[in-house]
Amino acid sequence: MDCGSKCPRGQLLHLDVCVDEQKPRGGVLELLGRLRPQWKPQDIKMKVFTEGITNQLMGCFVGSLQESGAVLVRVYGRMTELYVDREREVEMFQILHTHNCGPQIYCSFRNGICYEFVRGNVLDDTLLTQPAIYRLIATEMGKIHSIKLESDNPVENILWKKMAQFLKLVHNAQSNTTAPHSSKLLREIPSIETLSDEMETLKRHLSQIGSPTVLCHNDLLTKNIIYDNKEGMVRFIDYEYADFNYQAFDIGNHFNEFAGTSDTDYSLYPRPELQRDWLTAYLESYKHSVGLEATVTELEVQKLYVQVCKFSLPSVFLHLFAGLQLFMGSLGNPAGQIFLH
């Protein structure tokens, strides 16, 4: 049934539709009947972009996917609410779209959302080190970091809360794992107590080095960057983790992504010369966006460079937590499976 109700999240349209993960077409057509009533069901094409536990993403279109009007339908994965705040994700969609930094979100439904398709292609890893490309990425991040909410209430930095949440999930996964062949690897992993102590040490030091809290993407790997070579621009997608965080964390996390996600190779981590050029482009964009003189000094670049180097460490921690969950999930542990993408 489609009730077409309004939900309180910025008056976003909410449709009382549930899309079956195994046979999604029926539910998707019901959604498109409201969002694109002029489309004939027999003409609608669907392309699956991702099909995993975290979510299922489908592009829906008539004619060409790259034409205006295409709709993305994201079906949430099971148990993802344990670590993704879906209300906050919708809010981030709306904020970024308002500031011309993200696609329009059309509606929510019982187990997902529908939003505008961003034209272009997922960025190839090999393009990350090309100056023309990484400067576009730095410029776009500077714009997003400059966004201010229209509220007098102070924003809450989510880094340490999110890390504690992930650590708890890892602990639960380890506690519930009984597979005998997992014991050797588990002995090589630091204990939860050790990981917790390391996290507190990072928190004490990094909370005092002066990195401002800004609106961050928090998950800027290449598959979350869309490159439109015709327009010469990039856009960031996937806001499951977007929220207010340390400026230097968002940049350091992106630099860690140069090493890859599945087959990590830290020899690919950006060399200092690239980082400094990237940071210069970022600071020019950030300062311009907040209304400051866009001239960037070497002292400013050096200060941010040091902060980014330090904040790359908690980013590695989060990657470690996700990796542990990936391992637990491979053993059939439900608490670990929620982290499989």
UniProtKB/TrEMBL annotation:
Keywords: Kinase, Lipid biosynthesis, Lipid metabolism, Phospholipid biosynthesis, Phospholipid metabolism, Transferase. The keyword Membrane does not apply. Pathway: Phospholipid metabolism; phosphatidylethanolamine biosynthesis; phosphatidylethanolamine from ethanolamine: step 1/3. GO terms for molecular function: ethanolamine kinase activity. It comes from the Eukaryota. One of its GO terms (cellular component) is cytoplasm. Its EC number is 2.7.1.82. One of its GO terms (biological process) is phosphatidylethanolamine biosynthetic process. Belongs to the choline/ethanolamine kinase family. This is ethanolamine kinase. The gene is zgc:113516.
